[in-house]
Write a structure and sequence with these properties.
Elements (H helix, E strand, L loop, with lengths): L3 E3 L2 H10 L13 E9 L9 E2 L5 E2 L2 H18 L9 E8 L7 H12 L10 E9 L7 E9 L4 E3 L1
Parallel strand pairs: 5-6
Antiparallel strand pairs: 1-8, 2-7, 3-4, 5-7
Helix pairs in contact: 2-3
C-alpha cells in the first residue's frame, strides 16, 4: 500500500516554482498539474474599489485591464481549458513592479484574473507565494504559476 506524505508549504512552493520534486519529500508520482506563463508589461496591484458618481462602486480601469491580460495570457498557454475544481496553488513573481506596489495585491489581481478561467472560484486557492524582483534585461513582466493539487496536495511514496 502506498504511503502518502504531506508536503510542507515550502515544498509546495519549490515544486510550483521549479516543477521539480522537492528535496526531502516522498519519491514517486507527483500528483499535480502545473501551468506557468508570463504576462508582459508592468505588474498591476489590485486597487480598492472606488465609489463613482451616483454612489455606484467600481473597480479601477488599470486593475480591470491587468486582470483581463492575465486571463488572456493564461488562455493562450493553456489552450482549451476547463476550469479546475479542487485545491489550487497560485504563485506570482512580479518583475519591475513599482517599489511601493504590494506583492500580495499583485497576486490578488492575478487570482481574480484567473477566476472562472483557470479554476472555478478563488476559494479553491489553498496555498501560494508572491514576490517582487528587478525587471532586468527582459523588462517588466509577471511570471505566474497555477497548480492544481490532487489528493489534498500530497505526493505518493
Amino acid at each position: 500500500m502506498a504511503r502518502e506524505t504531506p508536503w510542507t508549504p515550502e515544498q509546495f512552493r519549490h515544486f510550483a516554482k521549479t516543477g521539480e520534486q522537492p528535496r526531502g519529500s516522498a519519491t514517486g508520482r507527483v500528483t499535480a498539474h502545473r501551468i506557468e506563463f508570463v504576462v508582459p508589461g508592468k505588474p498591476q496591484p489590485k486597487q480598492r474599489a472606488r465609489k463613482g458618481r451616483g454612489g455606484r462602486w467600481y473597480t479601477p480601469e488599470e486593475t480591470v485591464a491587468f486582470e483581463k491580460r492575465v486571463a488572456e495570457h493564461f488562455k493562450m498557454v493553456a489552450g482549451k481549458h476547463e476550469p479546475w475544481t479542487g485545491d489550487v496553488l497560485v504563485g506570482v513573481t512580479a518583475y519591475g513592479a513599482h517599489h511601493a506596489a504590494d506583492s500580495s495585491n499583485i497576486r490578488k489581481a492575478v487570482e481574480d484574473g484567473l477566476n472562472k478561467v483557470a479554476y472555478r472560484d478563488d476559494v479553491q486557492i489553498v496555498d501560494g507565494y508572491d514576490g517582487k524582483r528587478p525587471a532586468g534585461d527582459e523588462g517588466p513582466r509577471t511570471v505566474i504559476v497555477v497548480m492544481k493539487l490532487e489528493q489534498g496536495g500530497r505526493a505518493d511514496g
